[in-house]
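pls design
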């Protein structure tokens, strides 16, 4: 508590002193707490004294002194032994203290090395901190420059957005006009194309009718030609049959003529032989055979 700290420092624990070193509560609350601390201190001090009447306190003190003398006398022997043990323990403690002193020297030397390393480490930390501070300052300047650039870019983007919006509106108007113009042109061309298709359909209908008539005429002509061709084929077949009969008759006549020719040749040979024989008999000499 604050009052205990003030009492340990030798400062009177009153309300004003408590308010000087603390900032909690109101003045009335602090004064009430100080009064409560004093009441608790009075109770603690009262608990340290025995609750003995004043008339019997001298007798109690004399009794305690006699008891203390008896206890001291009874404890002299054991205390001597304890004293000897204590001397030995002190000797051992001195040795341990010397060893500890040497250890402390060694530790001090190590601590000196550690302190040097710590100094170097602190210097490096200080240098790193300075470098970091310089970098942070440069980063801060860079950040300011970037913020300025961002502001410029933001204004440029806003201006570009305005220009883009104006251009987009102009293009939308132009595009809408072009679409309307194209729609009108498309409607006119579609109507012209519909009329052309109707005209073509009419021409196709007329051409189809004409072709149908011509096909019918050609079909009738083809049928007539086919009929005439069939008749011609029949006449040709008839002529072929008659010609076959004539050929057969001619072949028969040829065979007969060949037979007659052979017979005439034999007769002619007989005539030549007879003539040769007659001439030989007549003495006119041998003549060549006409064959």
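designed seq:
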């Amino acid at each position: 508590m604050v009052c205990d700290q003030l009492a340990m420092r030798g400062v009177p624990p009153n309300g004003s002193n408590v308010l000087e070193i603390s900032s909690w509560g109101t003045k009335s609350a602090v004064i009430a707490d100080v009064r409560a601390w004093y009441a608790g201190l009075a109770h603690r001090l009262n608990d340290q004294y025995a609750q003995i009447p004043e008339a019997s306190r001298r007798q109690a003190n004399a009794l305690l002194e006699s008891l203390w003398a008896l206890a001291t006398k009874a404890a002299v022997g054991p205390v001597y032994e304890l004293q000897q043990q204590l001397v030995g323990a002190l000797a051992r403690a001195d040795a341990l203290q010397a060893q500890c002193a040497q250890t402390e020297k060694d530790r001090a030397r190590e601590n000196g090395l550690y302190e040097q390393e710590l100094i170097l480490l602190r210097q490096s930390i200080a240098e790193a901190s300075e470098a970091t501070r310089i970098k942070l300052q440069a980063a801060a300047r860079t950040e300011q420059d970037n913020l300025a650039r961002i502001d410029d870019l933001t204004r440029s983007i806003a201006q570009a957005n305005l220009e883009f919006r104006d251009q987009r509106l102009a293009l939308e108007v132009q595009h809408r006009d072009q679409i309307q113009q194209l729609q009108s042109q498309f409607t006119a061309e579609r109507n012209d194309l519909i009329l052309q298709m109707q005209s073509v359909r009419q021409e196709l209908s007329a051409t189809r009718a004409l072709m149908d008539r011509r096909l019918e005429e050609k079909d009738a002509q083809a049928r007539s030609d086919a009929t005439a061709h069939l008749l011609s084929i029949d006449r040709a077949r008839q002529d072929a049959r008659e010609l076959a009969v004539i050929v057969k008759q001619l072949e028969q006549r040829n065979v007969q003529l060949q037979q007659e020719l052979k017979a005439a040749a034999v007769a002619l040979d007989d005539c030549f032989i007879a003539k040769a024989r007659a001439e030989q008999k007549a003495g006119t000499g041998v003549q060549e055979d006409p064959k």
